[in-house]
């Protein structure tokens, strides 16, 4: 939609092909239906959240950065708000309003929208691209002077992301990097069913590959019936999934009290124990963590839940303190594409010009969004990748054609 809008706004005749029954089906479910459409982090912080090929993305980001995206959507008639973590949402908290304003712009610039239209094949002939379509079950052919492939990846296949863009890219000789489901939950070796639904806030999560920390973040996470999820875990999964796919087991370490140094934590524990010598350890720990976590915590530290505080040895006290800063679980697997927010990997950026998103192999062929080997952590960064690359591709396609011929934006 962004590619089609920018191409049309720059004087191009545009046809947008959508195989679903409506536009923005995947956009509709983002941000739990609220649509976290960008993040207002300063450039240095913003690019620290880009996981793959951030340097390649910088040119497209300069064409349409987060500030300009915010201004663009408000100028389209969508009031926005900034929330915790610099995340941006519609003031209405409705992703449907994002789709609505984009559709309004497409109609304003006379973009032809073909729904229920699947692209089966794209080929390049001497003077044009020829697209073989299946429109409501009927074969159809379309010619265009430029094509933007913005099909998404493999995540949430129920929304239409079934990897078509990868097939199109390969048919033109483009290579693909390995693809993985990303921004997903993580499964644990330990039985954590008793912890299902438990949310931990203001904690630090670290992921370890043997002695190397591959991820560290502060924020919120939660336990599921088989493992862990939530914002921290989704962001961590971008580093975890490729390793897990190769059979490597990782360690998830939770610091329950990241604001306290060990000496401060020791003083805090001593205060809790003062005057409570006859109370069981599990009772005293309720003041330091959610009650539902105490049993698992004591299991890991090897301290009996029935042991009274006054009977704790110095070694047991040290184990409790260590556990508060280093609660550990073994990560064995990650969620599938069915739950993945994005796809990691895709069309190799080495074969795409960063300033235009044009194929280096096929003039007039452009890529935008998740189909590229570009991904980021959760928090609005991936949608900014979509807006920036879509805008860049659409503008470049229009500049190539100068509005004299058709420019097709594919969004399926």
Topology, please?
Elements: H1 2-9, E1 13-17, H2 25-29, E2 38-39, H3 43-48, E3 50-52, H4 54-63, H5 66-75, E4 80-83, E5 87-90, H6 95-108, E6 112-114, E7 117-124, E8 129-135, E9 138-144, E10 146-149, H7 164-171, E11 180-182, E12 186-188, E13 199-209, E14 212-223, E15 227-229, H8 231-245, E16 250-255, H9 262-273, H10 281-285, H11 294-301, H12 314-325, E17 327-334, E18 342-344, E19 365-367, E20 375-376, H13 381-401, E21 406-410
Parallel strand pairs: 1-6, 1-21, 10-19, 10-21
Antiparallel strand pairs: 2-5, 3-20, 4-5, 7-8, 8-9, 11-18, 12-15, 12-17, 13-14, 13-16, 14-15, 16-17
Helix pairs in contact: 1-13, 4-13, 11-12
CATH class term of the largest domain: Alpha Beta
Going by CATH, the architecture of the largest domain would be 3-Layer(bba) Sandwich
Q: Could you say what the CATH topology of the largest domain is called?
A: FAD/NAD(P)-binding domain
Distance between the termini: 10 Å
Proportion of residues in β-strands: 25-35%
CATH homologous group name of the largest domain? FAD/NAD(P)-binding domain
Rounded mean pLDDT is 94
**Biggest beta-sheet profile:** 6 strands, antiparallel, barrel
- The assigned structural class equals alpha+beta
User: Could you list the spans in which at least 5 consecutive residues all have pLDDT below 50?
Assistant: none
Q: What is Rg?
A: 25 Å
Number of strands: 21
Describe the structure.
This protein is of the alpha+beta class and 412 residues long. It folds into 3 domains: 2-180 and 341-410, FAD/NAD(P)-binding domain; 182-257 and 329-334, Elongation Factor Tu (Ef-tu), domain 3 (Beta Barrel); 262-326, Helicase, Ruva Protein, domain 3 (Orthogonal Bundle). The protein contains 13 helices and 21 strands. The chain has helices spanning 2-9, 25-29, 43-48, 54-63, 66-75, 95-108, 164-171, 231-245, 262-273, 281-285, 294-301, 314-325, 381-401, and strands at 13-17, 38-39, 50-52, 80-83, 87-90, 112-114, 117-124, 129-135, 138-144, 146-149, 180-182, 186-188, 199-209, 212-223, 227-229, 250-255, 327-334, 342-344, 365-367, 375-376, 406-410. Helix 4 (54-63) packs across helix 13 (381-401) and helix 11 crosses helix 12. The longest helix has 21 residues, at 381-401. The N and C termini lie close together (10 Å).
